[in-house]
Automatic annotation (TrEMBL):
This is 26S proteasome non-ATPase regulatory subunit 9. It comes from Polypterus senegalus (Senegal bichir). Residues 93-154 form the PDZ domain. Belongs to the proteasome subunit p27 family. Signal peptide: none annotated. Pfam families: Nas2_N, PDZ_6. SUPFAM superfamilies: PDZ domain-like (SSF50156). Keywords: Chaperone. The gene is Psmd9. Gene3D superfamilies: 2.30.42.10, 6.10.140.1710. InterPro entries: Nas2_N, PDZ, PDZ_6, PDZ_sf, PSMD9.
Length: 196
């Protein structure tokens, strides 16, 4: 997937990263399709029983379809984790390359000290974001591996969050003119999403 530059480090192009993102989208589409199959089978899901109360195979569902869909979902979820890891590594690599070659704009010392790329407009009480200390009005400077130089859209943030479920992320925000460092762990909670 990657070539090497003169220093012997691997290199990557934006097109290669976009290709990985397309693969990720395709995997997500396939997972959704298999979940739809499970929904059509009396909404049996991933854990619904395949036998009746007497221990016989259920006659109201297509057992082969259910087993096949469950198996494929598990395989695709593993593929999804792997591609998310590849995307994150590729983004790190791409950012490092641009910093080395100066393609990303002026060198760090020539840039304003902190450049934010997003502003927090809502934090749900009791959510992972709230527990990390994130506040409404905070301007995000760094979110894990994402910063103003490699930020394209919120999909990149969503990818990092999804790949980092249960793992702490480093977060830097500007708050009242001061740089504040926070630790945020995306995880499932009572509300929607992994952040809130």
């Amino acid at each position: 997937m990657t070539d090497e530059n003169r220093q012997g480090r691997p290199t990557i192009t934006v097109e290669e990263v976009q290709k990985l993102v397309k693969q990720k989208d395709l995997i997500e589409e396939q997972i959704r399709a298999y979940f739809n199959v499970l929904e059509d089978q009396k909404d049996v899901g991933m854990n619904g029983p395949l036998v009746d109360l007497e221990g016989y195979p259920r006659g109201d569902i297509d057992l082969y379809q259910v087993r096949n869909a469950r198996h494929n979902i598990v395989c695709l979820q593993n593929d999804h984790k792997q591609i998310m890891q590849q995307i994150e590594e590729a983004l790190h690599l791409l950012h490092a390359q641009k910093r080395e070659t100066g393609e990303a704009g002026p060198r760090v010392q020539d840039q304003p000290p902190c450049q934010s790329f997003a502003k927090v407009d809502d934090v749900t009480p009791g959510s992972p974001a709230s527990l990390s200390g994130l506040r409404v009005g905070d301007e995000i400077v760094e979110f894990g591996s994402v910063n103003s130089q490699n930020f394209k859209n919120l999909q990149i943030i969503a990818s990092v969050v999804q790949h980092s479920e249960g793992k702490p992320l480093s977060l830097t925000v500007m708050r009242d003119g001061n740089k504040v460092h926070l630790g945020l762990t995306p995880q499932r909670w009572a509300g929607r999403g992994l952040l809130g």
